[in-house]
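Protein Entry — a single chain follows
Next Lines — sequence and tokenised fold
***
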Amino acid sequence: MTMFGDGLEAAVQKAFTRPAPRSAGAQMRYLVKQLKGTSQVAQLLRISQRTVERYVKDQIKKPRPDLAARMEREVRKRWQPQIRARARARAAATDGIVIDTRARIGYTAPVGTTDDARLRHLTVALPPRYAARLFDAHQAGAGDQQLQQIAAEGLREIYFQDSGRRAGSLEEVRLTDVEHVEFDL
């Protein structure tokens, strides 16, 4: 996945009301129930159907690290879909989203200004329309570059132009060398 995509997923997962299954057997049983069969789970996790059945019956308890990571990722991806949808809808309609990033930020501005990119650490509350754009793009399969561009547009409007109160015509804000990004609903 991507840094921005993972950040959006982590923000939504903070809204979960119950913890996801932790043991290998419980995770496998959850996946079998969600995908309606052991063959679909086997195909998804790239293991044999018999191995899936053995996890379901708790005959195998400790998966190898790469399989454990795939199982964890697939369970989290499917865990509490209604809570996940409600959190995204709330952020997109009323609450907005907070972005905390450390990146090299530069902008295109009128002649005579210093627009050289420099390392900044910003924590900015973006309005609901940017939360909606970020979540919609993420669900549509947008890559890190597109999500980064949407976040940069939000930072331009809210931080650099102070929600339109600052005079000046910043045409573009660029995020490069992103070291850290975290979202919070």
In short: The longest helix spans residues 144-160. The first strand starts at residue 97 and ends at 108. The mean pLDDT is 89.
